[in-house]
């Protein structure tokens, strides 16, 4: 989302079948909420294809990688590593330190007066799937809990990214999209990249719940 | 989370098997991020049991209901209805209006000077699963898009709740918990409700990734 630094989401661990949908949602959430790249374990090829397909249609830039060396990626990452875990420090207490570490805080926020941003650094956000190794807790510059309650790695990632970027990710623009949803109070409007009507749902009256109208979720999302 | 109003999350539609995990995560996210109650379709009994189990162990109050009358719930809800959809208005543009509508905005925010909150009203947040009926778009007081990109209903719910409560949900306290995670920079510490050590993971060295140590995700989360 920003040329100055790369924000990468690493999905740590994936059980084919059982985790397909969660892994896909981790990737789509990373894309939608401002990350530049997602790395999946190499056994998550189906999820990778789904996320690439969404990027092809709805735009980027956003990269999807399959890698078999997750431990090494974490160990050797040249930048700041955040591990999202329910055992970590409260996000509301460390988010400013994370922003400062990666250059997303301004001096103004950090107590200075110039308003200049701190130095940009790349950020790896690790989202656990299967059991994660203890070495990850030790390597992470920040173990961060979006609440210390059990809930959802997708929810934790979403809240973390929204807070990291302080909402700026919601205003990002997309390149090379072939379609675009038009936000509206009541409607389901999708237009081509050039703004021409593409499909229009929601005018089917009572019949739309039988699956004949344009769905609220892309059919191939997972 | 607040006596003045009830925030209810309605999972609209559920396909047993395929949606079990997503529905569970919707429920756990609702609980963790400040909602008071979640309503699942009556074919989502397994997800309901999981969320109730987490509430039993990690605290509440949080209610889980199974209902077969989702259309009627939406139609007859006495309060404000928000429908989360990628076709909706941008969350960053309507969140203040939602807060105002349910009494979470103060006059100060709305432009007044007294700082008094607006009148509390109950809020129903509808999260789509299967195709949702067009009537839902029409009944909703707000159709809200957490981005207009395809991603995850769990991510959308998480960001919406965090913005609705302006982060206050992260500080909520839990009643009747039998265990509590201690937030820390590096560690996996769970204590009993009275503060006594309960289990301690993360000291197993390299062996923790083989599944023998305490997992990062509760085993019964889904």
UniProtKB/TrEMBL annotation, chains A, B:
Reaction(s) the record says it catalyses: cytidine(56) in tRNA + S-adenosyl-L-methionine = 2'-O-methylcytidine(56) in tRNA + S-adenosyl-L-homocysteine + H(+)
InterPro entries: Alpha/beta_knot_MTases, tRNA_m1G_MTases_N, tRNA_mtfrase_aTrm56
Top-level EC class as recorded in UniProt: transferase
GO biological process assignments: tRNA nucleoside ribose methylation
Tagged with keyword Manganese: no
Binding site for S-adenosyl-L-methionine: 84, 128-132
Region (Disordered): 184-222
EC number: 2.1.1.206
Gene Ontology terms for molecular function: tRNA (cytidine(56)-2'-O)-methyltransferase activity
Localization, UniProt: Cytoplasm
Family: Belongs to the aTrm56 family.
Summary of subunit composition and partner proteins: Homodimer.
Function: Specifically catalyzes the AdoMet-dependent 2'-O-ribose methylation of cytidine at position 56 in tRNAs.
Protein name, UniProt field: tRNA (cytidine(56)-2'-O)-methyltransferase
């Amino acid at each position: 989302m920003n040329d100055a630094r790369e924000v990468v989401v690493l999905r740590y661990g994936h059980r084919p079948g059982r985790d397909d949908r969660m892994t896909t949602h981790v990737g789509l959430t990373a894309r939608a909420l401002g990350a530049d790249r997602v790395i999946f374990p190499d056994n998550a090829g189906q999820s990778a294809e789904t996320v690439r397909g969404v990027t092809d249609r709805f735009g980027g830039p956003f990269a999807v990688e399959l890698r078999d060396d997750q431990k090494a990626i974490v160990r050797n990452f040249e930048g700041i590593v955040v591990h999202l875990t329910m055992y970590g420090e409260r996000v509301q207490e460390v988010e400013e330190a994370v922003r400062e570490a990666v250059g997303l805080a301004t001096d103004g926020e950090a107590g200075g007066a110039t308003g200049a941003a701190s130095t940009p650094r790349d950020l790896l956000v690790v989202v656990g799937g299967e059991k994660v190794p203890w070495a990850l807790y030790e390597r992470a510059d920040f173990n961060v809990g979006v609440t210390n309650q059990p809930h959802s790695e997708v929810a934790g990632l979403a809240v973390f990214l929204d807070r990291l970027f302080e909402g700026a990710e919601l205003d990002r623009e997309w390149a090379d999209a072939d379609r675009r949803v038009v936000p509206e109070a009541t409607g389901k409007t999708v237009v081509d990249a050039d703004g021409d009507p593409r499909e229009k749902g929601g005018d089917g009256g009572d019949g739309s719940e039988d699956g004949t109208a344009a769905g609220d979720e892309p059919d191939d999302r997972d």
